[in-house]
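2024-03-11 09:14:02 DEBUG pipeline.ingest accepted 1 chain
2024-03-11 09:14:02 DEBUG pipeline.ingest length=574
2024-03-11 09:14:03 DEBUG pipeline.predict start
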Amino acid sequence: MKVLLPFLKLFRRQWLMMMLGLVLGVLTLIAGIGLLSLSGWFLSATAVAGLAGVGMNYFTPAGGVRMFSIMRTASRYGERVLTHEATFRILTDLRCWAWKSLLPLSERNLSGMRRGDLLNRLVADIDTLDHLYLRLLTPLASYLLMLLLLFVFVGWFDWHLAFLLCGGLLLAAIVLPSLFYQLGQAPGRQIIEQRRHYRVRLLEWLSGQAELTLFAAADDSRRTLAHVEQHWLDSQQRMATISGMSQGLLILFHGSLVLLMLWYAASGVGAAVPPGPLLALVVFCVLSSFELMMPLAGAFQHLSATMLAASRVADITGQTPDITFPTTSNGKAANGELLINDIVFAYPQAQPVLQQLSLRVAAGSKVALLGKTGCGKSTLLSLITRQWQSQHGTIQLAGTPLECYDEQSLRASMTVVSQRVALLSASLRDNLQLALPEKVSDERLSQVLQQVGLANLLQDQGLNAWIGEGGRQLSGGEQRRIGVARALLRDTPLLLLDEPTEGLDRRTEQEILRLLLAHAQGKTLLMISHRLTGMAQMDAIHLLEGGQITASGSHEQLLHTTPAYASLYRQLQD
């Protein structure tokens, strides 16, 4: 249960709405029990009065029945509105808290975690935590409060019956939840695990359609997905079976309590022997307590799933960031000079990727880093942007170690253009504005789009155009151009290009490089690539192999002194 404590503390933010929902929930139970109890007594008393031929004031109890009916309807509606609103707000707070805990984490913290699993934890597992308030805290608190009220109410007529009724309900609150928890523990955990497994497989299947089709593995992958889905459905079926059994046990226990109360009340209620209409009042009061007992099954049946979901979320939110930033702001770097000295880096449980790598990129210069896939180019970029931390060596920006920059200042000192452009399900304006902390005029955004050759997107809805999840409304080239447009909107001293033209045709590649090189005038540019387009415009080119720089020079120098570079250049020219 300790794993739930951090989440329970967050509930304090919505304590007022939670308490109002609890009060309305208790009023709903009071109205339901009062309605059925008063109705039972009213009908019985009316029948006895009619048989005895005596008069009776039926206006007051009839008014009480109407009052309880209206009260039950109104309080039930208010309770549902408030408890669900409180739940939605709590889930919002949980998501914001989870995201704030996730943002400082580095790639090392999240290494080994699949994207589908991470998505499942941030969406489905947090959704599961709504059981804490809706199915556990509110029903349990209402149950305990109603026990006290029932004891006082029934004790007003007969203390012995009050002890019997509330003792039975207290026994139910102790025995049944423990039983339901044990019954639902295994299938609850299986549902969480199978749902996670299914989401991971589904995301991999959706994102890997091109590769699966290329290697004729689409059908096998789909059958695997269906198999995983069937296991998930089987777990849900087992939980549904246990839910039915739990309801049956609850009805059996409640029926036994009703018969026991009927037996004891038959000999008299308080001083009334025979009990008369009071017998109906007590029995109907016990009958109406079933509404009070119903949430016991669902509350603790899903407790194990809730605890597992909480532990999975806590695995992320409870991590200590591998990379930390100073709290004091140093301001944006004065220039983009990079000094990389004796960098050694290896991924967890892997061989070193970079070995004693040293490199100097002068302020205002344009430098290219070339090499085959896997030679460590993107890794070096990750170290410069502090997504990873090297095991040895230092990296300085404008003469200051990267570790001395606070995160905001570091991000404001560099612009990264990668081959993967992250696009959100939002408007074109929002996706461009994402690159800047401050608002930019629509005129400026439109100008940049025209610069990158996306003037056609300004037709019809213009900047309000919805581009869809992941930019599904756009082609690959258009998505890449939006990434370039973001870079043109930012004014930073350092420009980092991570294979920005990968997968593009030669004409588009040349256009994008021309825009980026023009934007880099007066800035420091470091481009990593395994292609040679635009190399003639570079001040220096470094060849990276085996985690070390094996050759350096200008384009013309490398053509004459490095056979491998010259051979690659001729192949690409043909």
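2024-03-11 09:14:41 DEBUG pipeline.report The first strand starts at residue 338 and ends at 346.
2024-03-11 09:14:41 DEBUG pipeline.predict end
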